[in-house]
Design a protein that fits this description.
The complex is a heterodimer of chains A (731) and B (226).
Chain A: H1 5-10, H2 15-25, H3 31-41, H4 43-46, H5 51-54, E1 64-66, E2 73-76, E3 81-89, H6 91-96, H7 98-115, E4 119-129, H8 137-155, E5 159-166, E6 175-185, E7 200-205, H9 215-218, H10 239-252, E8 258-263, H11 268-279, E9 283-287, H12 300-305, E10 311-316, H13 321-330, E11 334-342, E12 346-351, E13 354-360, H14 361-364, H15 395-404, H16 412-415, E14 426-428, E15 435-438, E16 445-451, H17 454-459, H18 461-478, E17 482-491, H19 498-518, E18 522-528, E19 532-533, E20 536-537, E21 541-550, E22 567-571, H20 582-587, H21 600-615, E23 621-625, H22 629-639, E24 643-647, H23 656-661, E25 667-672, H24 677-686, E26 691-699, E27 701-704, E28 708-711, H25 712-726
Parallel strand pairs in A: 4-5, 9-12, 17-18, 24-27
Antiparallel strand pairs in A: 1-2, 2-3, 3-6, 4-6, 7-10, 7-11, 8-10, 9-11, 12-13, 14-15, 15-16, 16-21, 17-21, 19-20, 22-25, 22-26, 23-25, 24-26, 27-28
Helix pairs in contact in A: 7-8, 7-10, 8-10, 10-13, 18-19, 18-21
Chain B: E1 2-7, H1 14-23, E2 27-32, E3 43-46, H2 68-76, E4 80-84, H3 86-94, E5 100-102, E6 110-118, E7 134-141, E8 145-147, H4 150-158, E9 162-167, E10 186-190, E11 196-199, H5 217-225
Parallel strand pairs in B: 1-2, 1-3, 3-4, 4-11
Antiparallel strand pairs in B: 5-8, 6-7, 6-9, 9-10, 10-11
Classes of the chains: A alpha+beta (731), B alpha/beta (226).
């Protein structure tokens, strides 16, 4: 039976692609086979628009054990310890059904981590919502937050950091990016590549239901008015089963039973079986009657395309089946031998003793289309532009406006819904520059951060891409860690449009430049295109998850001022870049002009100098100066301990608004005791670091003589006001 | 001193509490919920987590586990039992402790450090809090809102069976320092014989100065004395 062009279209396959399929397999596919092609060839699984550019990213340094291409990246953190981490998006499902969308986003990323043999030790998330006044925002925000919490809390992995941002470009396309980090031994890493013929292919975990069918295809198209009708494509999560699956897999991984393992994530059984077999250059044969099904009369089509959660595919060594079965039975999980590896290099599916699909694996993987899409430059507009009379704005009122704005408000309303302390190793909880997790039983730790700055990327994608990597680097340095590598989640609109593709190409260029210069490679990540509704795309939003190592936890650093009478220094030069600053955006509602550019030489030099000071125990606190500028950074350093700053503006040509609110990059504020000043200045001078002494710490107030005096108690109240007010809760 | 930490499907603080017990030289064994008998031990710990995914009602399915009978026996013989968070919920479902744990008043999960006043220091779990009875510990729960009718609350108050109450950093017990809506700010209670303690806060999570405090340690060192 020939398939109608309408059905082909519905599968998101265009006529050229269909011709290619026919050429590759030498005949028309049947409906099941078409479904499988659609699952493997969609943007989400095939990276067909992004592949060309992703290849340009640096992915190696001396610490990288596994770069992109596996379930997650792996780095060496010494003493035979390996850290496994990745960030992934779950944007489209979360918009349609915020609780389940976000929950299964967390579930999916956790599976990526323990699939590689690592016990998850931390999660982070970056979530973006539309304007707070948009009618959907409140519901989406509270749904996403309880979904993330509902899943992570139940499994018992601490949420150690994150970011929450609002912008009208996300009104109809929210972003939910979840990052997970796990710990294993260097000699205990598991991969997805199948090896050996006639090995048992085993299905474990939850039963397969009809949820999430075509989820990956849904995430590869724009939304229109019928977004709500796509609810059935959203998966439903069961964190309890995931916890059992985690424990069962880690138990089985103790010996050498497993040859390869892959979670059933996007495109479920299809993509997991295809990936395992094609990486191993083998074939795979599956008997679909053996699939544990949740519902009656499920068809092969439904089984292959379901995205039911909490499932894994294993290939295990001969003779190990019984022992494996015992473990999964103990944890109350389904366990079924569903097939075997073959030498045919084909995916063969049997159902009711009939062959229902037979496809060459290369057609599904390496021969999938790759596009070289047209793109348009987005980095031309570097002309600075200023709103009228901005210098007349009162400093204190401006600071108040920034502190109370949703984007700069303190986010405890959110993170207090996430378990941050389970596992007993949370050294630095959310609210600092980075989260810090101790490596269990040792006196070392890892610093973790997620960052994005979409309005910088919208204004200039190259500068923005560079900046966001540097921001992550700076946050890791501020916690006293040596940055090692990143994972990235690239959220963009429709790549078939030249300007969107241009944002993507240039953002990658910026990320690539910064990663290369800082020796801070990308080891994992994902791309989410089609974050677009009715022709309106989100701002380009690359989210960077950064990881750094703290070899000695005695050197962990925080941003809070520690005592009165210490010196305050600014590292890095303040030129006063105000375009795209919080001051212009929040106080003057002025959104034109270029973002600050980042000088990578200064970035690296300043960062390494800070680490030098920290390891010599010369600084009491460190905070990077980013959005909001110096005045906001000082306030953030003061609020926790109610230790403020008495500032004397340095004599230079920078005007006061520019100096206090400018968002020049590569800067830090540090607190130094009098007795450490000499050594500190020497190290900074020896390394050619530009720095300014701007004042001393004092009790209770952020103060500039005769110009500004702000009580930290008031600033704290303002900073905590917005979320509680928005959700109508008393403080 | 020997302890048994019971592991239910979905327990997730079992390792944390085992680490704490061992840190204070209590010899611990992990016991799978499906066992019939407890190993010989002085203390049984029901750890935090989401046993059985908290499906049906928190702690309810775990309270029907095979191991529970021998835990009830252990209790009857005067053996010590500590239930933390989900463990407290399980103790209530088994009937070893009275009352109910409702959803938090604001219907949200709460994870943060709170202050507690140790009300009863005259029991095996809390003797070392005699000299420090205002402490800081983390809570992390969705159903920690302790509720009892007036009779029960009066009985608990009159018989000094309340171990911990939520307070502020000065020890003041008032509405503002009650994170989850619990009756009389109750955070932990004892049974009549004071050999069973159920508490929502997590002492095992603050036993290390690197983790911003060690107020949990005193509970484990108290147990050593018993």
């Amino acid at each position: 039976m020939k398939i109608s062009s309408e059905i082909i279209n519905k599968h998101g396959i265009n006529s050229k692609e269909y011709k290619k399929i026919v050429n590759l397999i030498g005949r028309d596919p049947n409906l099941l086979e078409l479904g499988i092609f659609s699952a493997m060839w969609n943007e989400h699984c095939s990276y067909k628009s992004s592949k060309k550019y992703l290849r340009t990213l640096p992915t190696k340094n001396s610490k990288v054990i596994q770069g992109p291409g596996e379930n997650a990246g792996v780095i060496d953190i010494e003493d035979n310890d390996a850290l496994v981490f990745k960030i992934e998006s779950h944007n489209h499902p979360s918009f349609i059904e915020p609780y389940q969308g976000a929950a299964t986003g967390v579930g999916g990323i956790l599976r990526d981590i323990f699939t590689m043999g690592a016990r998850p030790i931390a999660t982070l998330n970056s979530i973006h919502f539309g304007s707070p006044s948009h009618p959907k925002t409140k519901n989406l925000l509270s749904g996403v937050v309880s979904g993330i919490g509902g899943y992570g809390n139940c499994i018992g992995i601490p949420t150690i950091g994150g970011e929450v941002k609002f912008d009208s470009s996300y009104n109809e396309n929210i972003l939910v990016n979840a990052m997970a980090v796990g710990l294993t031994k260097k000699n205990k890493i598991f991969y997805s590549k199948a090896e050996g013929i006639n090995k048992s292919v085993i299905y474990v975990g939850s039963k397969t239901g009809r949820d999430g069918i075509h989820g990956a295809s849904m995430a590869s198209a724009e939304f229109d008015d019928d977004a709500d009708e796509k609810k059935p494509t959203v998966q439903v999560g069961d964190p309890f089963t995931e916890k059992l699956l985690l424990e069962a897999c880690l138990e089985l991984m103790k010996d050498n039973s497993i040859i390869s393992i892959q979670d059933m994530g996007a495109a479920g059984l299809t993509s997991s079986s295809v990936e395992m077999a094609s990486k191993g250059n083998l074939g795979i044969e599956i008997n679909l009657n053996k699939i544990p099904c949740r519902e009656k009369k499920m068809t092969p089509y439904e089984m292959m395309l379901s995205e039911s959660q909490e499932r894994m595919l294993l290939i295990i060594n001969s003779g190990k089946e019984e022992n494996a079965k015992k473990i999964f039975t103990k944890w109350g999980l389904d366990f079924s031998v569903i097939g075997k590896t073959t030498n045919t290099k084909n995916l063969v599916l049997n159902f009711d003793e009939e062959k229902v699909a037979d496809l060459p694996l290369t057609a599904l993987s390496v021969d999938a289309p790759v596009y070289d899409r047209k793109w348009k430059k987005n980095s031309n507009s570097n002309k600075k532009n200023y709103p009228k009379n901005y210098q007349e704005k009162k400093l204190y009122e401006s600071l108040q406006k920034i502190l109370i704005s949703p984007n700069n408000s303190e986010k405890s309303w959110i993170w207090e819904q996430y378990d941050q302390t389970v596992m007993g190793d949370s050294i630095q909880k959310p609210g600092g520059d980075s989260g810090v997790i101790r490596i269990h039983g040792k006196n070392k730790g890892v610093a973790l951060t997620v960052d994005s700055s979409s309005h910088y990327c919208l204004a200039n994608s190259i500068s923005g891409g560079k900046q966001v990597v540097c921001e992550a680097w700076r946050n890791l340095i501020s916690a006293g860690s040596t940055p090692i590598a990143i994972t990235n989640c690239l959220n963009f609109g429709n790549p078939e449009k030249e300007e969107i593709m241009g944002q993507f190409v240039e953002t990658i260029d910026g990320i690539s430049q910064a990663c290369r210069y800082l020796n801070f490679p990308v080891v994992s990540g994902n791309v989410s295109f089609y974050n677009e509704t009715k022709n309106k795309a989100i701002s380009p939003t690359p989210t960077i998850g950064g990881v750094g190592l703290i070899k000695n936890l005695d050197n962990v650093m925080t941003k809070n001022f520690k005592e009165i009478g210490n010196h305050i220094l600014i590292i890095g030069k303040t030129l006063g870049h105000l375009n795209q600053s919080e001051f212009f955006r929040e106080v003057l509602n002025f959104k034109e002009g270029p973002p600050p550019d980042t000088n990578l030489f200064n970035e690296k030099n300043n960062g390494l100098a800070i680490l030098n000071l920290i390891s010599n125990k010369l600084v009491s606190s460190v905070h990077d100066v980013s959005s909001g500028g110096i005045l906001l950074a000082l306030s953030e350093m003061g609020i926790q301990n109610k230790i403020g700053a008495l500032i004397k503006l340095p004599k230079n040509n920078v005007k006061i608004h520019e100096y206090l609110f400018g968002e020049d990059q590569s800067r830090y504020i540090i607190e130094v005791k009098e007795r450490n000043m000499k050594k500190t200045s020497k190290i900074l001078k020896d390394n050619n670091i530009y720095f300014e002494k701007i004042g001393i710490t004092q009790k209770s107030f952020i103060e500039i003589k005769n110009i500004l005096k702000a009580d930290l108690n008031d600033l704290e109240k303002l900073n905590k006001y917005w979320f509680n007010n928005y959700f109508n809760e008393s403080i | 001193m020997k302890s048994s930490v019971i592991v239910f499907p979905g327990s997730n603080c079992d390792r944390d509490v085992a680490v704490a017990l061992e840190k204070f030289k209590i010899k611990n064994e992990m016991v799978w919920h499906d066992e019939v008998a407890l190993p010989k031990c002085d203390l049984v710990v029901l750890p935090g987590g989401f046993s059985y995914g908290d499906y049906l009602r928190t702690g309810c399915i775990a309270s029907k586990s095979r191991i529970i009978n021998s835990i009830v026996e252990h209790a009857k013989k005067g053996g010590l039992i500590l239930g933390i968070c989900n463990g407290f919920q399980i103790l209530i479902e088994t009937g070893l402790l009275p009352g109910t744990l409702l959803r938090n008043k604001k219907l949200k999960f709460i994870s943060k450090n709170i202050f507690l006043k140790v009300i009863n220091t005259d029991n095996n779990f809390c003797t070392n809090y005699k000299n420090k009875n205002i402490i800081e510990l983390p809570i992390a729960h969705n159903e920690g809102n302790f509720f009892g009718n007036n009779n029960l609350i009066n009985k608990l108050e009159d018989n000094n069976l309340i171990a911990f109450k939520y307070c502020d950093n000065k020890g003041k017990i008032e509405k503002e320092s009650n994170p989850n809506g619990s009756s009389n700010n109750i955070a932990g209670i004892l049974n009549n014989n004071k050999n069973i303690l159920g508490m929502m806060p997590h002492p095992e999570r603050l036993i290390d100065p690197l983790l911003s405090g060690e107020d949990g340690s005193l509970l484990f060192t108290s147990l050593l004395k018993s």
